[in-house]
Each structure stands twice: as structure tokens, then as C-alpha cells.
Amino acid sequence: MIIADQGNVYALDNRCPHMGFPLQRGTIRDGILTCHWHHAKFDLGSGCMFDPFADDVPSFYVEIRGGEVWLDPNPIEEPPREHWLAKLDDGLEQNIPLVLAKSVIGLEGLGATKEILKRASHFGLHNRAAGWSTGLSILTAMANVLPYLSEEDRPLALYNALCMWRDRQRGSRLISI
Ligand code: FES
Predict the structure, then answer these.
(1) Same domain as 109, residue 65
(2) Fewer CB within 10 A of the terminal residue: the chain, N end or C end?
(3) Structure pTM?
């Protein structure tokens, strides 16, 4: 969608990255677009989200030439692997199941299963209060089981392991070391 606001023109994907509500039905104030379903907020210029439960909205290069709006149809985006790894870190740090699920699906699709396990283990080992947690045991067991699961089952199994692991981590006192 093309948006004109306070003399500037912006182009953003119309689908809210949280759950798909049409962003054209949102409202804009002070350069911030608010989705009206769950009230996630996005920067108009970059599409970056202010609420970690959502994701960034894909944005596009757009400019005015001789009174016409010109748009590059290719979204401005970081490489998918880096994007989903950053989201995985957000999901782990802030314990947001939807973000964890999306990042697992995204990374699994890129064949980065080992990277998921590595990040989660690393996070667990650096944020523990009392030694090896049951959550880390769950994660280790899942790492051994994953190669025997079908491709369709792997993302869900991995997601469930991450959620159980994250709940266990939350159950013990988290500290940074
Ligand atoms: S669908 Fe937009 S905030 Fe949830």
C-alpha cells in the first residue's frame, strides 16, 4: 500500500506481520502506523515494529518523480537467515511463542535446524541460575530425536521443545552470566 503522510510518501506491505490484518484499516499518527487488530505499532518510514510480538512490515523504496509515485516492487529486507535468527533471539529473550513459532518455521525452511538448537542451548547456558536445567535436557533429547521425524513434524516438535524449555527456564531464576 502507498501512504502519503505529512508531505512524505511511503510504501509498506498491506498485511500485518502479526496475524495478517489489513494495515490499510489501521491509523497513522506522528509517523507511526497502528494495526487495529492487536494494536501493534510500526514505523512508517522503515516498517520496523515497536512491539516485539509482531514482526517488521516489509517496506519498499518509493519516490516522487514529476508528480508521479515510483515504486521498487522488491521489498527492502535483510537476508532471511539473519532475519529469522534475530527473531529467534527475540522470542527466546522475551518468551513470545508466536515469534518462536515463526522463526522456527522460517529457519527450518532454510535448513538451519542446527542453528536453532545452537542458539537455544547457548541462550540456556548463559541464562541459568542453578546449573543444568530440565529445559536443557528436553532440548538435548529433541536434538537427538529430530533426525528421525518427518519434515512436516519437525517444526512443531522443535517449537514445542523450545516452549517447554523456555517455560522451565522461566521457572528457575534467570540470571545473566
Ligand atoms: S494482526 Fe495486526 S496487530 Fe495483530
Answers:
(1) no
(2) C
(3) 0.78
